[in-house]
Amino acid sequence: xxxVSDHDSTANLSALExxxxxxxxxxxxxxxxxxxxxxxxxxxxAPGARLAIDTSTAPVGEVFAEARREGAIAVQVNHxxxxxxxxxxxxxxxxxxxxxxxxxxxxxxxxxxxxxPKVLARIWSxxxxxxxxxxxxxxxxxxxxxxxxxxxxxxxxxxxxPDPQSFVAxxxxxxxxxxxxxxxxxxxxxxxxxxxxGGTLALSFDLASVAGLKQVQLVSHASVERTQSFPDAPRxxxxxxxxxxxxxxxxxxxxxxxxxxxxxxxxxxFAGGAHP
Length: 276
Fold this sequence. Notes:
By secondary structure, this protein is of the alpha+beta class. It has 5 helices and 17 strands.
């Protein structure tokens, strides 16, 4: 996938689309709507879309409405806890319009890795409430000549050939995980429901890392439920978890390699839970 999301501009979309076409890869056109109190990626947007609001004055509801007007399937909250991130601004009382639930994805941003625990704590709290927000990833590259893109990535499961709509729809549905290195291959798809009322949920995963695996943690109810370590640092391994399934349950993974690089998954939901 080739992706671009410039600050409040679509000027580079046609040039990037030409590059993608020449290379035979799918192109995801986006825009980063950039008020001073929060940044939001909107994608994929419609060809020829142009910004129609002043993001310096528009409240959050108008920002999200503009993203949808431009055709965006997904609205992503970027670097949400930096001083001008949306969640930090909301908590400080400086986000015009306050809290608006009209976003879909929350970013793990490799430019501010110290904020990863904050992002995880927030999205886990949403999952406890059965709110289906999911993770995305960004390396926040502003200078493609001198900065490295892809330091953290979103891996998404697709049922067919990659195209912008199917990729973003699957990301929005939670069929994904974000990673600084380790790879996760789930037997039950992230973002989907599994299990039976009153039963036991069998969770199976294949894990891999070129740096060697250190540990995997099973997360539920916003806390680490189990940890399995790998003292032999295998590059590939298989893990199984047998867990009780209650109506409010969800399960996710944190995988760490020998270099301390981590992967964070979206949840697997227990099938008996309600969907507010």
